[in-house]
Automatic annotation (TrEMBL):
Organism placement in taxonomy: Bacteria, Pseudomonadati, Verrucomicrobiota, Verrucomicrobiia, Verrucomicrobiales
PANTHER family cross-referenced by the UniProt entry: HTH-TYPE TRANSCRIPTIONAL REGULATOR GADX, HTH-TYPE TRANSCRIPTIONAL REGULATOR VQSM
Pfam families: Arabinose_bd (PF12625), HTH_18 (PF12833)
Organism: Luteolibacter soli
Keywords tagged on the record: DNA-binding, Transcription, Transcription regulation
HTH araC/xylS-type domain mapped to chain residues: 236-334
SUPFAM superfamilies linked: Homeodomain-like
Protein name, UniProt field: AraC family transcriptional regulator ligand-binding domain-containing protein
Stored InterPro entries: AraC-type_N (IPR032687), Homeodomain-like_sf (IPR009057), HTH_AraC (IPR018060)
This protein's record includes keyword Nucleotide-binding: no
Amino acid sequence: MSAGKVTGDRFRISSLLAKRLAERGISIRTVEREAGLPPGFLNQEKIHAATAQLFALWKAIGHISGDPAIGLKLGAESRFERFEPIQVAAVCSRTFGDALQRVSRCKILTCPEEIRVQSDGAETRINFVFLQDEGAEPEVLVDVCLAWVVALGSRGSQGQIRPLRVELARTVRHRELFENHFGCRIRFKAGHNAVVFRSEDLARPFATHNEELLKILGAQLDRELDELRSDAGVGELVRLTLKRTLAGGRPGRADVARELHLSVRTLQRRLNDAGLTFQRLVQDTRHELALEYLGEVTIEISEVAFLLGYEDTNSFFRAFHEWQGATPGEWREQHMRSAYSRSTDKPKTNR
């Protein structure tokens, strides 16, 4: 896959992954073949993959390894020299919460993925969300993500930060293996995949904090972010940011500029240079998401209005009618009829 132009669905894969798999006796070529990837895919200097390719890759790794703990082992990498710059920056952060925020903000460098940190009183839940996900993420990839964040907290606090529990959407399997690894109870058949910590742990200082190294890494990450902005195009980056921040809110120029590490003036200048307006990008993004949400019959129309950041349902109805020439309910009904017709339409055969 070309490592050229950044798209809205592109993950950066560590060039060290092939070496780490080979060390565990996993055939790189077999993994590539089973995942439907071209030969030599994992041997590129810069490896990028769409969500579907990433999922196929990790499914293949899980299947070929035959090891139910492979994701845990790969996610809990302890060799500092194998850390990506973002991982090093996380370990050097002031606190666990600072580390999580830093990694979450830097995700735009690597992939359409969010780290969601949700506090509810004494507990804080952390889960990873793949923004271009069209199906369930592979279990082995879930294991990698959760093992990584637990290892980060433990390493930075020298073992003082431990999870309260891990929640997995899968059915009960290998309970003892997972509880031994995470050092806490596992809740299977959960509604999502997440790791839960004590909220007070987010303020716990990291013994590995290194302000000088953090400044050096910050400068490097800023340079990479500048390259990404230039490569992807400001319009695409604004749309991706809006998709992450629209739900229940009304992000403005200042909010988007802050997410992209730009000043409002610089953001506006780049939009002008590209012949774009912020308001048009907001409307286009809302239109795109509205069609996606309305295609899901389990989402109420009033909820769609909320998810798109509208103050009330009537405002959404007016905007949608301008886009589609129909009300949201009329469009959904027509869409459902068309989908049903396609599913029942059988190809004609020659007799």
